[in-house]
Design a protein that fits this description.
Chain lengths: 508, 154
């Protein structure tokens, strides 16, 4: 029962007043991020990372890391709640994982049942969040125990698996996704080499010795990239927002959506745990599954409550599930978790199996706070959904410049250098053009975060084997990971060749 | 997909890869106690990037390579470049003229460029944001931001 004991300790951390406030701010901003079209969870978390860093600057390091993580992951799963609001009211998904919700949600809203759809989405998200968390509590210990057996060779192969999984599903073209991964890894080599202390690709520019700062690149690529995109492409067509109406769902709605919520939660959780497959895929799959299992498949797309309940539960469960590989193995499976990992590393906390033994406050405090955060979200989303719907009406001519200003403030506050600000603007430009041309950004960020670790482990493994590369496939576990990695790349290719459409994971 | 971007992009990425390959020649090939030096990882990745870029270059010549040239006309280049220039100016002047002035000017200008109707409202919001952030961050949280320039400080 040690897991429950740890969880109780975690609640002690999470119930500290400042952490309650951080969790509240996190989920509040997360919901807003989810509601606002144009800012997804990835740019939201990236944008807030420097802000939290400055907010928590006065705290002792462990507490600061715990509080920052509580806030940032609040943004992550809060966005999953908020995304449904615009899907239902505006027929515009607030983020990619709510795309399927528009199919039935908007129809429901047009029938005057917007309130019911919104509350079912909130209830589904809540149930799913709790399911994912319970699974996380019980899987955390065994998984991190297992991961403690890994040597450098196993870690190298596991990280390779993570990278391949994200690249394999990363976008319309696998070649481009792989190129982005490799570019991320290459950019990570700039700076002083961790193992030998040799300066690489620095050319006597002092700003480069530390390496390119992850934070700057992430904020630039996602937050600024999105802003540039909206500035260039937005056509100022104001849409009419549907009135929310009665909020509480009827008994009939609850009965019809109970089973879809349960199925969506479980499916979403398992998809979330898999690296590479994130919330977007989870919501797609659960919608398809629900349509197959339904007694009236013809009602889907015309306003079926199950078509809202299942995908909304699935995307929230997936975001909870994605925390498992991040926390226990130290391998982020998606762009957003990669940014969360970057935040942890910024606080000098290494996610992975040792996180639970070295920093139990952070790991369990975070898990406990996610229970509280989900409860807050349920409370926030049921009665306050009308207020959040108002956020959509924020005039973009104020919002967009302010996002630029917040990005600049955040990066400068942490880095205090003009070099990083220029890099920030360049990354914003690169982010816009790459994303526009289907070069996915999530693999790049993942490569950047994992780069130093994957290189360290590779070189440690090769050092123990005297430079013999066979070590990676003679160790059974490592070989297994490599085979899986290969499968992530080959299977989608084979399926494409057979003419099947492969559901790809846009940023999640 | 934009065929031209992909074709030139693949060449650019191949050049980046080649750059890393050639430059990694100057990094030592071994580290103390290990045969594996700090050059190996960038060298291998550089090669991989070149191979992948060539593959993308080749892909763009395949007949089935889709090129849906979406209407580029709707893009608001003028607005975009104005804001980009404003951002660059803001970033470069930040340390010189201080956070409050630079931010207020930047926000005021960009609000108007983005189509804010009311001059007064833009002015109020931009001042409130820049002063608010400065006071909260520097006075309350004891952070560091460039203050007012020396010739203005009291």
């Amino acid at each position: 029962m040690s897991a429950l004991h740890y969880l109780a300790d975690g609640f002690l951390i999470a119930f500290q007043w400042q952490n309650l406030i951080y969790a509240f701010i996190g989920v509040l901003i997360g919901t807003a991020v989810g509601v606002l079209p144009g800012i997804g969870p990835m740019s939201g978390v990236a944008l807030l990372m420097p802000v939290t860093a400055s907010l928590t600057a006065g705290l002792p390091p462990e507490m600061a890391a715990a509080s920052a993580l509580i806030l940032l992951s609040g943004v992550y799963y809060g966005a999953m709640y908020g995304g449904s609001t615009t899907s239902i009211l505006l027929n515009t998904p607030g983020e990619s994982s709510s795309v399927v919700t528009t199919l039935d949600g908007y129809q429901l809203a047009r029938q005057g049942r917007a309130g019911a759809a919104l509350s079912i989405a909130a209830i589904g998200s809540f149930v799913a969040g709790i399911v994912a968390l319970i699974a996380l509590v019980f899987l955390a210990d065994p998984l991190s125990d297992m991961a403690l057996q890994f040597g450098p060779a196993e870690y190298f192969s596991l990280m390779l698996l993570g990278l391949c999984a994200v690249s394999g599903l990363g976008g319309k073209s696998m070649t481009k996704a792989l190129m982005m991964t490799v570019l991320g890894l290459l950019l990570a080599t700039i700076g002083i080499d961790n193992v030998s202390g040799v300066a690489r690709f620095t050319y006597d520019i002092p700003d480069l010795y530390q390496g390119l700062e992850f934070l700057t690149i992430a904020v630039g690529l996602f937050a600024l990239g999105e802003v540039f995109k909206t500035i260039l492409e937005r056509d100022q067509s104001a849409q009419e927002i549907i009135k929310v109406g009665r909020i509480l769902p009827s008994k009939q709605d609850l009965k019809e959506s109970a089973a879809p919520i349960a199925r969506g939660s479980l499916l979403g959780f398992f998809i979330g745990v898999l690296p590479g497959a994130g919330a977007t895929l989870a919501s797609f799959f659960s919608y398809i599954l629900e349509k197959k299992w339904s007694k009236h498949p013809e009602r889907f797309g015309k306003g079926e409550i199950a078509g809202v309940a299942a995908p909304e539960s699935a995307n929230n469960a997936a975001s909870g599930g994605a925390m498992i590989p991040l926390l226990t193995l130290g391998i982020p499976g998606s762009g957003t978790t990669a940014i969360l990992m970057g935040a942890l590393l910024m606080y000098n906390v290494q996610p992975g199996p040792l996180l639970f033994s070295d920093h139990p406050q952070i790991a369990w405090g975070l898990i406990a706070s996610m229970f509280i955060g989900n409860l807050m979200l349920l409370v926030l989303n049921m009665p306050l959904v009308k207020i959040f719907a108002k956020i959509i009406e924020t005039p973009p001519h104020f919002l967009l410049p302010m996002i630029i200003a917040i990005s600049v403030f955040g990066v400068y506050a942490v880095q205090i250098s003009t070099f990083d600000l220029i890099l920030l603007v360049l990354c914003g430009l690169a982010g816009y053009f790459l994303n526009k041309n289907d070069f996915p950004l999530a693999p790049l960020v993942l490569g950047l975060v994992l780069g130093p670790m994957i290189e360290n482990n590779m070189r440690r493994a090769l050092t123990t084997s005297n430079g013999d590369f066979t070590i990676f496939y003679t160790k059974p576990l490592s070989a297994l990971f490599l085979v899986c990695a290969l499968a992530w790349l080959v299977v989608p290719l084979v399926m494409k060749r057979r003419g099947k459409t492969v559901v790809i994971n846009e940023e999640a | 997909m934009n065929l031209r971007f992909d074709r030139y992009g693949s060449i650019a990425f191949a050049l980046i890869g080649a750059f890393f390959i050639t430059q990694s020649q100057y990094i030592s090939t071994s580290a103390y106690g290990s045969q594996v030096g700090p050059n190996l990882f960038p060298l291998g990745l550089g090669l991989l990037l070149v191979v992948l870029s060539l593959r993308l270059f080749w892909e763009t010549f395949q007949s089935k390579y889709r090129s849906d040239s979406k209407a580029e006309a709707g893009l608001m280049y003028k607005r975009f470049f104005t804001i980009l220039a404003a951002t660059l100016l803001y970033v470069l002047l930040l340390e010189m003229i201080g956070y409050v002035i630079a931010t207020a000017l930047f926000l005021y200008a960009t609000f108007l460029v983005m189509g804010s109707k009311s001059q007064l409202k833009s002015l109020v919001v931009s001042l409130a944001f820049s002063v608010g952030v400065y006071v909260v961050y520097v006075q309350l949280l004891k952070g560091t931001l460039p203050g007012l320039p020396a010739w203005l400080s009291v």
